[in-house]
Amino acid sequence: MMATTEECRTALDTLSDNLARTDGDVRRAAALDRSLSCHITDLGITFTGRLADGRIEVLDTRQGPPGEKAQIRLAMAGDDLVAMVGGRLNFARAWASGRVRLEAGVRDLLRLRALL
């Protein structure tokens, strides 16, 4: 069964809560202030917002791909987002296999790898 828009939004909120509770290298990596988009490919929706102060703030949900190019861009199926946040799918493996796309500037990618 395919994840719903609500399940994906809940997963992003849970990810935000998890990031806010981290410390050390992960906390520093999440302490960026960047625009963020998360395109859910199988649902054809995009969540847009900001990664700021170690939290993800979702500001909008729109149909289709991202309208503007965010500084950090994620794309994946809804089931993969829910599975990653639930600890059933390893982000690094999903990214390496192409199930998850992460695009960002080189500096941001270097900082974000601590989250992987």
UniProtKB/TrEMBL annotation:
Top-level taxon of the source organism: Bacteria
One Pfam family linked to the record: SCP2
SUPFAM superfamilies linked: SCP-like (SSF55718)
Residue span(s) of domain SCP2: 28-103
UniProt-listed Gene3D superfamilies: SCP2 sterol-binding domain (3.30.1050.10)
Name of the protein this chain belongs to: SCP2 domain-containing protein
Organism: Streptomyces sannanensis
